[in-house]
Amino acid sequence: MVTNITSFGRSGLSDWLMQRFSAVVLAIYTVFMVAYLLLNPNLDYYAWTALFDQTWMRIFSLLAFISVAAHAWIGLWTVTTDYLKSTFVRVGAQSLIILAIFVYLVWGIQILWGA
Amino acid sequence: MSNLQVSIYRYNPETDSAPYMQEFQVDTKGRDVMVLDVLHMMKEQDSGLAFRRSCREGVCGSDGMNMNGKNGLACITPLSEVVKGNKLTLRPLPGLPVIRDMVVDMGLFYKQYERIQPYLQNDTPVPAIERLQSPEERDKLDGLYECILCACCSTSCPSFWWNPDKFVGPAGLLQSYRFLADSRDTATSERLTDLEDPFSVFRCRGIMNCVAVCPKGLNPTRAIGKIREMLLADAT
């Protein structure tokens, strides 16, 4: 057993499962968005806000935001542990990444419920 | 027919400040010999050339090396399989510290092998005869027990290059699954507990370099997938 304290779930198995689950959510969200934009070529502001006013769309979008956050953290944590060998540089990079993800997540929630 | 151009990695830490590539001209008399034969022809020209070999028939796993960019056993790789444009470049297995020329320090590789406890563990009373298996149970070990620990797979794996102290590597994981899949072994849950961290198994990204280079035609990626399935079944 290799000890670690900065990975998403502190367990390779839970990180692996979360990475796959979030990937499926993001794939479905992407397909939905692309299909919606293709089916509504003359999309205007009112139709767009009407879409995001609906509770199911907000739940779906929030699920996608949280999936992006988890997916990005697990993936980038892996990249930092592969390539950044200096502990100081690695922990610094991990701190910046988690800070950016947190900012984007809160910002996304604000946009979703702010309109 | 012109001589084969061989470029080989040389490094003697006692006399060289840095590794370098040395060029050799080898007359194979037009025959499609094995790469190991070419190494012996080179050793006749320069007796200081160091490489490991033993059985010369792909059983002992001593002469794993990088031939024109691909890992394999020199003794069972014919020139026709690797030589492009009459040129052959030989380097030691990538990612492991070089002791001299083609000889690498396999310490980390063996440490990971030792970690997965590659021996049968059974805490039930020893029977008067052998511990029996059904033919179906025995079939599960095919494609696992044949590994000769040549390290061609683990040293072709970028995940093992970056974290050889934490990631078990394809060779170790193939052997780990060989004991996880054995109906006679009773330490399954202890073995799984030791593997569920983010490095030991899960650093595998499934790029299948290990499958592409295995001289015995084994499939470590499949074994790693099976370990993941077992971990998932055990923990959910």
Brief summary:
The complex is a heterodimer of chains A (115) and B (236). Chain A has 115 residues and is mainly α.
* CATH fold-level name of chain A: 3 helical TM bundles of succinate and fumarate reductases
Shape of chain A: elongated
Strand order of the largest sheet of chain B: 2-1-5-3-4
Structure classification of chain B: alpha+beta
CATH topology of the largest domain in chain B: Fumarate Reductase Iron-sulfur Protein, Chain B, domain 2
Major sheet attributes of chain B = 5 strands, mixed
Tell me the count of domains of chain B.
Answer: 2
How many distinct beta strands of chain B?
7
**Poorly predicted runs of 5 or more residues of chain B:** none
The biggest beta sheet of chain A reads: none
**CATH architectural designation of chain A:** Up-down Bundle
Helical segment tally of chain B? 9
EC number (chain B): 1.3.5.1
Cofactor (chain B): [4Fe-4S] cluster; [3Fe-4S] cluster; [2Fe-2S] cluster
Organism (chain B): Vreelandella subterranea
GO molecular function (chain B): 2 iron, 2 sulfur cluster binding; 3 iron, 4 sulfur cluster binding; 4 iron, 4 sulfur cluster binding; electron transfer activity; metal ion binding; succinate dehydrogenase (quinone) activity
Please describe the structure with a list of short key phrases separated by commas or semicolons.
heterodimer, A: 115 residues, mainly alpha, 3 helical TM bundles of succinate and fumarate reductases, 4 helices, 82% helix, elongated, B: 236 residues, alpha+beta, Ubiquitin-like (UB roll), Fumarate Reductase Iron-sulfur Protein, Chain B, domain 2, 2 domains, five-stranded mixed β-sheet, two-stranded antiparallel sheet, 9 helices, 7 strands, 31% helix, 4 iron, 4 sulfur cluster binding (chain B), 4Fe-4S (chain B), metal-binding (chain B)
How would you describe the overall organization of this protein?
The complex is a heterodimer of chains A (115) and B (236). Chain A has 115 residues and is an all-alpha fold. Chain A has one domain: Fumarate reductase/succinate dehydrogenase, transmembrane subunit (3 helical TM bundles of succinate and fumarate reductases, Up-down Bundle). Chain A is 82% helix and 0% strand. Chain A has helices at residues 12-39, 45-53, 55-83, 87-114. In chain A, helix 1 (12-39) crosses helix 3 and helix 3 runs antiparallel to helix 4 (87-114). The mean pLDDT of chain A is 94. In chain B, 31% of the residues lie in helices and 14% in strands. Chain B is built from nine helices and seven strands. In chain B, the strands form two sheets. Chain B has a five-stranded mixed sheet with strand order 2-1-5-3-4, with helices on one face. Chain B has a two-stranded antiparallel sheet with strand order 6-7. The longest helix of chain B is centred in the C-terminal third of the chain and has 16 residues, at 220-235. Chains A and B meet through helix 1 and helix 3 of A and helix 9 of B. Chain B: Residues 137-167 form the 4Fe-4S ferredoxin-type domain. Chain B: It is an enzyme of class 1 (oxidoreductase). Chain B: Pathway: Carbohydrate metabolism; tricarboxylic acid cycle; fumarate from succinate (bacterial route): step 1/1.
